[in-house]
Amino acid sequence: MSDFSLESVDVALSPLARFEEFLQSRGKRMTQQRRLIVDEVFSRHEHFDADELLEMLAQTSGRGKVSRPTVYRMLGELVDAGLLRKMDLGGRAVYEHDYGYPQHDHLHCQKCNKLVEFHSEELKKIRDAVGREHRFRVNGHRLIITGICPECSKARKRRSRPLDLV
Amino acid sequence: MSDFSLESVDVALSPLARFEEFLQSRGKRMTQQRRLIVDEVFSRHEHFDADELLEMLAQTSGRGKVSRPTVYRMLGELVDAGLLRKMDLGGRAVYEHDYGYPQHDHLHCQKCNKLVEFHSEELKKIRDAVGREHRFRVNGHRLIITGICPECSKARKRRSRPLDLV
DNA sequence: TTTCATGCAAAATGTTTGCACACGA
DNA sequence: TCGTGTGCAAACATTTTGCATGAAA
Questions:
Q1: Which residues in chain A touch residue B90, judged by CB atoms under 8 angstroms apart?
Q2: Which of A22, A129, B1, B52 has the least C-beta neighbours within 10 A?
Q3: pTM here?
Q4: B15 with B96, same domain?
Q5: Residue A29's domain is classified under what CATH number?
Q6: pLDDT band at A4 (very low <50, low <70, confident <90, very high)
């Protein structure tokens, strides 16, 4: 019936190379900070927000190597370049890999805030059918299924915790 | 194959009555401001944010009848009471009727920011199948299909406008 | 007459911007 | 060098909070 698994997608260029291409096409420059950020962002496949990225950078490259405004500016550029996808979750922006990663959606645990990815070909069909029905030119979609993950279900009811992403 | 239309749902109590019930169940009180807000919110079926509600209140009930913090507090309560649904869209919270309104999702026009509702029974099936697959206890979901609405498609390319919800 | 709700002002977030200096091409 | 990028500090936008006052029940 359906296939909810996620494979990765082959890409010709590394994220960094792809980003350099993007920069060139816009007459922008590769810098020390941009390199650090791209490396950091693609060093692991996880969801993160601006604060977390800043913290990761601090740990890997040293405090103050990249400033907060630069991180925010870069996140926007990485989204424009097609390397990252952005989503709004509970009032803040959360990012994940887009380049080299297949289309997918998320299960969101309301207790521990974990995000689990899944893929559904059927969903895409529905999406396109709905788009056609309303004569929208569809560019994409975002589906978040909210609920309680198995781990949190098991744990005897405890107080819900403040936001902290995995 | 699918049915993307939206009917309304019969409910026994008016939103106000339903909210009073909710308040009582929590030992809270019905006040002048809460009444004004519930009336305003359910006076038309549209998506709105805190600022817009505040503005609507100012026009209907007079400036300063309800303060900004009260509006924010009430929005939270209305969500808790099941009268409103909240969604994050472009960094701010947008609300819509939940009580007396069937489950649905949205098409979002990236040009004019219009939100169009649709319903899909199939989507719910996928959602539940995915939940089962990952052993999530599913509580709900949020799907936003992004694209360009027919009106904006027709209009010869113009500069994208700043945010302004319908 | 006892809570609970409100308004005010201030604070807390999360994100963006102006500008002088630093740096990549 | 020339123009772009960066960091800093400040501005912003949105939402939340502490606290004294006001109003339901």
A1: 88
A2: B1
A3: 0.87
A4: yes
A5: 1.10.10.10
A6: low
